Amino acid sequence: MKYRFYDKEPAFYGNVFTLALPIALQSLITIGVNMLDNIMVGSLSEEALSAVSLANSFISIYQIFCMGLGMGASVLVSRYYGMKMSGDRPEEAAHALKQTVALMLRLTVCLAALFALATALVPDIIMTTYTEEMPIRELGSVYFRWSVVTYFFVGTSLTSTIALRSVRQVRFPLFVSIGAFFVNLFANYTFIFGKFGAPRMEVAGAALGTLIARVFEAFCILGYLFLKDSQIGFRVKDLMMKTGTLIGEYIRICIPVLISDGILAIGNNMVAVIIGHLGKTMTAANSITAVTQQLSTVVVQGVSQAGAIVTGQTLGTGDRERTMKQGYLFFGLGLGLGTISAAFITLLKNPIIASYTGVGAETRQIAGQLMLAISFIIIFQATNSIMTKGVLRGGGDTKMLMITDNIFLWVISLPLGVLAGFVFKLPPFWIYVCLKSDQIIKTLWSYLRLSSGKWIKKITTGKTESAPETAENTIETPENTIET
């Protein structure tokens, strides 16, 4: 059967955007908070802007690890939810679903403890890996000291949000993010600038404002998951449930996502390290463009997560042919959304750069070059993101994605970026293109992988208490057999 990148399927596109738009709006709010933080801190000095940006580069490693944990669990949650809703062994699927969430939350807390310990004990050493500028390192260490406990709140709320999205609970997390936006805005304004009788804390105030917003967010999300949600049905007592029957499957599917996203996070931070060592002007310019790049891809991120959810749930019903057709439609969506994002960046780059009043003319000029580079790369980034973080991951192809993601990053794009920046001393435009060249290669690779059909993997529920030990947990279809 011949597949197309676009087809008249209003039900498909309606389903995708029903899931994607609330996720995109939530991402937009989060990015808006980061942008307001940057603008507020940027009004203090370039050193303060660079310090907060670089400190958050390290914190983003943890967030990406959590995304890996959440998205890895999402592959299983979506598949089990599809199995449960199709009526095939619903009790067994529901049990495996709860086990997945329990394992996800336990790993999240352990990871938070490791990052909190590192941030508390060696903040200056962490900052030294990003920059040699002493004023920036000192301000970054201040930001870290106020961020130690933030990891626990941001991690549990982030992974729980992804689990809720996987069972089509997308509205409540959006409402929570809207509330957190206003909490963060008020707290940052109060503590950065010392308003309403509060002390003027500057960089420390930015960290405190973020912590207050994260606490609010975590209490709302976890409260909903433990007390209200009925799709997963997870309660506080389930945190202690036995998960041994699912550990093997969890490790096989979820851990490659964690490793892939974790190493990818470290690799992306190597990009920040390379840029940080090119000087504080380049660092400040990159801080401006980083938020813009995130802002331009919020819909892409939403469609990526929708891709994983839709793919997992479709496979949970056993329909392979439908899954393949949807994969091609998602590829076409990636090309279209990437082009729209490129146009968005090109049109708005000057007003965005002008909003940063505390930076110099050279920083603005470099930021302009970086914006143009991003507008080119974003077309490829959008397409392969929807495929690798969405469709292929939702199909269970997590091990192959772990291998290819990191080969393209560590063997190709980072070495090219080092050569461009430190050996050939190319203009900022070409340095950025080299650092992101893996996005171009992954787009081609993801198409080839999609066409092969090898990305659709078998997933089992493990040996649960509700199923006989010898049961074969499979769904038979005319096209193939899919284990669920």
What does this molecule look like?
This protein is mainly α. It has one domain. It contains 16 helices and 2 strands. It has helices at residues 10-42, 46-86, 90-121, 123-128, 134-145, 150-166, 171-193, 203-227, 247-276, 280-296, 298-316, 320-354, 361-394, 398-423, 428-435, 437-452, and strands spanning 474-476, 481-483. The protein has a two-stranded antiparallel sheet with strand order 1-2. A hairpin with a 4-residue loop joins strand 1 (474-476) and strand 2. Helix 7 (171-193) runs antiparallel to helix 8. The longest helix has 41 residues, at 46-86. It is globular. The model is unreliable at 464-484 (pLDDT under 50).
Can you give the mean pLDDT? Answer: 85
Instruction: Bin the helical content.
Output: over 70%
Strand order of the largest sheet: 1-2
| Category by helix and strand content | mainly alpha
Sum up the overall morphology in one term: globular
Rounded to an integer in angstroms, the radius of gyration calculated over CA atoms is 22 Å
Largest sheet: 2 strands, antiparallel
The helix tally amounts to 16
**Low-confidence runs:** 464-484
Number of strands: 2
User: How many discrete domains?
Assistant: 1
The CA-CA distance between the termini, in Å, is: 25 Å
How much of the sequence lies in strands comes to under 5%
- H and E string: HHHHHHHHHHHHHHHHEE
